[in-house]
Amino acid sequence: MSKDRKFGLGRGLGALLSDTPEVNRERGQTNTNSNSSVTDNPSAALGAISHVKVSQVEVNPFQPRFEFDEDALKELSESIKLQGLIQPITVRQLGQNSYQLISGERRLRASKLAGILEIPAYIRTADDQQMLEMALIENIQRENLNAIEVALSFQRMIEECSINQEELGDRVSKNRSTVTNYLRLLKLPPTIQAAIRDNRISMGHARALISVADATTQLYIFQEILDKDLSVRKVEELVRQLKNDATKPASKDKKPEAFSFQYQKIQDDLSSKFATKIKMKVQDGGKGSIEIPFLSDDDLSRILELLDW
C-alpha cells in the first residue's frame, strides 16, 4: 500500500489525518481490514482503504479550488480507465451509505468522467473545521492554487475557524508575512484580482501593487504592466518612482460639497474606465467640468487612445 501513497502533504495535513494506517502502526495498532468494502462493515472501514460508490460521495463544500482544467481532467480520466484510480480519495462518513469528500475532487471528477462506479477511499472522522483545514492544506500542497484562491481560502479559514494569521501560518507551514501578503490581495481592485486569478500578472507583480495605497495608481500601474509587458523589477521601479513623485503638499482648497449618488457613480465609472482618478465639478443648474489627470506622456497617450483622439 505504501508505494501507492504519494501524498507529500506535509505536517499540517498529516497531523489532522491522525487516524491514518501509518499513524496506527506507529502506535502499535494493526488494521487487518486495509482493503475492505465499506458496505460490509461501515464502522470497521474507518481509517482503512475501502471502496465506495461514486454516487454516494458528495463534493466538499469547503473546496477552495473553483476551476478545474478540463483537458487535464480528460487525461486523468483516460489514465483511470486503463490503470484504475491508484491514489485513493479521502472522505468522511455522513451515514451508512453517504460520504462527503475531504480531498481528491479532481480524482473524483475524473473517475465519474471515466464511468467508474466504485473507487478506493480513506474514510476519516472530521468536523467542519477539520474539513476546511484538510481541503485547504491538501489543495495548496498538491494542486498549486492560484494566488486569489489561496487568499480566499486563508480568509475563510480565519473567519470560519476563528484563528489568527499566525496560527494559520503554522497550519499551512508559511510565515505570517506570507499569509498577510496573500490576504492583502483581496483588497486590490476586482479587475486586478481577476488578472491574478487568470495568470495575466504574477504574484510578484501583485506584491508590488499591494504596496501602493491608492487604487487609482494601482489601476494605472496594472495597465502599464499589460500594455508594456513589464517585468516585476520594472514594476517595482515604477512604484518607487511614483512614490518619490508624490511629495507635493496636500491641497488646502475648500472641500467640495458631496455629490449626488448619480454624479458620484458617473465619476467612479469614469475613473474605472480611464484607470485614473477623474475629478468632476458640478455647479447649480447642471453646469460643470470633468478633469482627467495623467501621470506621464505615455499615460496621456493611453487616455487619448481611449478617447479615440
TrEMBL record:
Residues 30-39 have a biased composition (Low complexity). The keyword DNA-binding applies. It holds the Pfam family ParB_N. Keywords: Chromosome partition, DNA-binding. Residues 50-140 form the ParB-like N-terminal domain. Residues 1-42 are annotated as: Disordered. Belongs to the ParB family. This is ParB/RepB/Spo0J family partition protein.
